[in-house]
Amino acid sequence: MFPYNYITIEGNIGSGKTSFCKMMHEEYSCRLILEQFDDNPFLPFFYEDMNRFALTVELFFMTERMKQLQKHLLYQDLFHDFTLADYTFVKTLLFARKNLADDEYRIFQKLFNTLNNSFPNPDLLVYFHRSVDILQKNISKRGREYEKNISDEYLLKIQNSYFEYFRNILTFPVLIIDLNDIDFVANKKNYEHIKNLLKKEYLPGVHRISLIL
Ligand SMILES: Nc1ncnc2c1ncn2[C@@H]1O[C@H](COP(=O)(O)OP(=O)(O)OP(=O)(O)O)[C@@H](O)[C@H]1O
C-alpha cells in the first residue's frame, strides 16, 4: 500500500487533482477531502474583476478550507487506511500571494500562519505539472462558465507561486510529476503508473519525475 498517512494532490487549475482523488477513493479505503469551490459565491465575480474581489475570495476560501480541515484532520480516523485531499491548506496562501495587494497579503499571511499551525503537514505532497496549453484545453473542456476567460498569464502566476514555495520545503517530500497531456482517466496504465509512484518512499524535499515519454 502507500507508506503515507496523509497525501495531498496539488496542481494548477485544471490539472486533474479532483479526478485522480476520486479514482483513488473508488479503489482504496481512504478518507477523501475534496475542495468545495462551488460553494464560493464570490468566485464568478472574482474572475470578472480580480482586483475588486480578490480579498473577499481569498478570505472565503481560507475560512472554508480551515473549517473543512478542522473537521477532518484534527481527530484520528480509525476507519480509513489513509487520508487523501485534493488541496493542501497552503494553497490558500499561494493563490493569495499572487492575487492580493502587498499590504493585504501581509495581513492575510499572518492570519494564515496562525491557522496553519494547528494543521499537520502532508506526509507526501504530489504536484501534477502540465503546460499552460494543456491546462487551457482541460479548462475549456470542462466548460465552467466563469473560468472561460482565465489567461495564460494567470495560470503561469499560479504555477510560479507553487514552484517558489517548493524551493523552501525541507520538512516533507514534494513529488512533482510532469504529466503534460497524459490522460490518466481514459488510460488506466497511466493511472497505475502514478499510483505506483505514490507507493515509493521519498525523503523530505523536492523530487521531480516525468511520465512524458
Ligand atoms: N485561493 C484561491 N483564489 C482564487 N481562486 C481559487 C482559489 N482556490 C481555488 N480557486 C479557483 O477555484 C476553482 C477550482 O479550483 P481547483 O484548482 O481546486 O480545482 P480544479 O481547477 O477543478 O482542479 P482540478 O482540475 O485539478 O481538479 C478554480 O477556478 C480555481 O482557480
UniProtKB/TrEMBL annotation:
User: Protein name, please?
Assistant: Deoxynucleoside kinase domain-containing protein
Q: Origin, by domain of life? A: Bacteria
CDD domains, per database record: dNK
What are the residue boundaries of the Deoxynucleoside kinase domain, all occurrences included? 7-199
> Is ATP-binding included in the keywords of this UniProt record?
yes
Q: Where does ATP bind?
A: G11, N12, I13, G14, S15, G16, K17, T18, S19
* Classification via Gene3D superfamilies: P-loop containing nucleotide triphosphate hydrolases
- Catalytic residues at D81 (proton acceptor)
Q: Which UniProt keywords apply?
A: ATP-binding, Nucleotide-binding
Q: Name one GO cellular component term.
A: cytoplasm
Report if keyword Nucleotide-binding is assigned.
yes
Mind telling me which InterPro entries this protein's record contains?
DCK/DGK, Deoxyribonucleoside_kinase, DNK_dom, P-loop_NTPase
Check the record and name the PANTHER family matching this protein: DEOXYGUANOSINE KINASE, DEOXYNUCLEOSIDE KINASE
GO-annotated molecular function: ATP binding; deoxynucleoside kinase activity
